[in-house]
Amino acid sequence: MGNLYEGPTEEINSAAAARFADLARRAGARRFVYASSCSIYGAGGAEMKSEHSTINPLTAYARSKVSCEQALRPHADPDFVVTCLRFATACGASPRLRLDLVLNDFVASALLTDEIKILSDGAPWRPLIDVEDMCRAIAWALTRDASQGGAHLAVNVGYNDQNYTIRDLAYAVQEQLPTASVNINTAAPADKRSYRVDFSLYASLNAQAKAGKPLAQTVRELVDSIQASDFRTSAFRTSYLVRLHALSMLRQRGRLDSALRWT
């Protein structure tokens, strides 16, 4: 989406969020929570990335997260505590299911096509976080005091034991759905988006963040969610459950313009 809508990505993810912070402060809010992303580390290699590591955003999405983190800094003070949650890659079941997330994609693929297809060589690293653990992090940030990390805090949110290679994730899904085969594209060019992340700071600041939901449980919940739905098409990657295609359908119907504004 960021490649196709680079301008709106910056406008929505960064400029609008910074404006909301200004409006919130003027309205008397005491806390502001921004959903940032570990994708800002980009081509990180095997080294664990902490909040002090060099960032290397490779996409419009990642760049928009960096620019908003920076834009929010001047707004922060002890009376307006800003927390930028650098989330690991989201996964998990929810009422509004998304299938354009790597683990969710693998589970849907295994269920609907009996195959887990890895488009890369499976070597890139990704940290994962279940959507419920994301919600818990937001709840913590809404009550965080400036003495816990400062008035402006950008913190990696996830768990050190939940850094996986893409290949690891495919085989974790296969363990729960053993009839599905794993198909790795060994001829694919290297995916530069690879990063392992250190979440020690988050664990030290949030006493409730010692362990995340186990990966096997997340997979089982996704299986249950998809099986309980009426969604049965193997062409799920071109469905409304993938945000890019949802945007495309709205544009084709004339409901969104090229800037992603309602017509």
Description:
- With 263 residues, the chain is α/β, with parallel strands linked by helices.
- The protein has a single domain (6-252), classed as NAD(P)-binding Rossmann-like Domain (Rossmann fold, 3-Layer(aba) Sandwich), CATH 3.40.50.720.
- Helices cover 37% and strands 19% of the residues.
- The protein has eight helices and ten strands.
- It has helices at residues 6-26, 60-72, 102-113, 131-141, 166-176, 200-205, 215-228, 243-252, and strands at residues 31-37, 43-49, 81-87, 89-91, 115-118, 125-130, 152-157, 163-165, 181-184, 194-197.
- The strands form four sheets. The chain has a three-stranded parallel β-sheet, sandwiched between helices. It has a three-stranded mixed β-sheet with strand order 4-6-8.
- The mean pLDDT is 92.
Entry keywords:
about 260 residues, alpha/beta, Rossmann fold, 3-stranded parallel beta sheet, 3-stranded mixed beta sheet
Helix content: 25-40%
Supply the number of structural domains: 1
Task: Please name the CATH topology.
Answer: Rossmann fold
Basic shape: globular
The run of helices and strands is: HEEHEEHEEHEEHEEHHH
Show unreliable segments.
none
Distance between the termini: 19 Å
Largest sheet: 3 strands, parallel
Just give the CATH class. Answer: Alpha Beta
- CATH architectural name: 3-Layer(aba) Sandwich
Care to count the β-strands? 10
Mean pLDDT: 92
Tell me the CATH superfamily: NAD(P)-binding Rossmann-like Domain
**Broad structural category:** alpha/beta
Strand numbers in spatial order across the main sheet: 1-3-7
Strand portion? 15-25%
Number of helices: 8
Rg, Cα atoms, Å: 19 Å
